[in-house]
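Revision sheet: structure tokens.
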Amino acid sequence: MSELRRELSLFDATTINVGTMIASAIFVVPSTVALALRLPALAVLVWVVGGLVSLLGALCMAELGAAFPQAGGLFVYLREGVGPVWGFLYGWANAVLINPASIGAIAVVFATYLGILVPLSPAGIKLVAVGSIVALTALNCAGVRAGAVTQNVLTVLKVGALAGLIVAAFVLPGGSPANLTAGTVPAGGLLGPLGVAMVAVLWAYDGWIEITFVGSEVVDPGRVLPRSIVWSLGIVVLVYTLTNLAFLYVLPPERMAGSPVVASDVATVVLGPAGAAVVAGAIAIATLGANNGIVLTAARIPYAMARDRRFFPWAGRVHPTLGTPVPALLAQGVVAVVLALTGTYEKLFTYVVFASWVFYALGCAAVLRLRRTRPDLPRPYRAWGYPLSPLIFIGFAAWVVGSAIVATPWEAAVGGLIVAAGLPGYWYWSRGAHRSAQ
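Predicted:
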């Protein structure tokens, strides 16, 4: 049976993570943060803290990725560190729901912003969204290098676009240092607003785990995986922090808080009427790059599950000449297209996205458990700050999940039931895996 090929360098791995994290959130979430906090210093600080919290989780995944450099990422780590049922439920939720819904949602955002540059009807937006999913799926079927090179180009372009906007905000007329010291403390205190802002920021950083899904395709994974995870988060924390400083320099907190398109407003102030089009182009590039990263990496989860005999066998096949999991990529693309056409991605994403943080916390718990139960496991990289790093991240993850449950109890309940719906599949495929092992 054909196997995946180790072809991804440190640069490739880093751009996959950076490109997946930087999507549309940085262009809109700063408004949510400003609305909650109203103080520029806190609005910037929360992005730094959110990045550091994400880094703690990423350090744990870096240890696991170096110890288990296999396709599937957290599916493998949970199977080895917590138990196979948790690995399966993570794989089920991501392969069947979370990742296709994410691809569908991001494709629609891409088409919507492209429609600002090239006017599109509602039907045209759906057609472009579907076309982008088909094109990215075909590209990543053609070879992991094709997907990686595309990711490299798109990531460089989007980081360059944000860097240009940052420089323009500080250099061109329109901004003022006084905006950075304006604002007032929220009347009801800071605890609630800080929670709202932090949850929004942590969602914006999500994506730092993507490179672990292609662990079987990274060259020298014991060295490259940890470095790419740490470097990518460092880059994104820097970009996000500077972007928010730039936005606050141009717009006072009250105006920023009331802007649903804060990046466009900033660009319009410093660049004039063309600014909105510039930002629309930047968001289109950012979302296309994010989707390419997800398409490339996410299909490796059902592939890994199938190779573990806990999913449909066809999902574990690798094309003999292309070296990619073509069946898994095609199935993922079909589901994403259906969700994009029907619009059901919005509900599914709302229902199950909070579950990602449950699994992230379990991944950090796996680090703690494996250190105790398998002390002799080869660990080319050990998480910095252990045991505090996994414990702190688990605490933040519990807070994020708890906030989601309190804010949207119905959606959280439905999401939990959707994840639990994978249990019959686990029972069915586990029986087959047990028989095959005998």
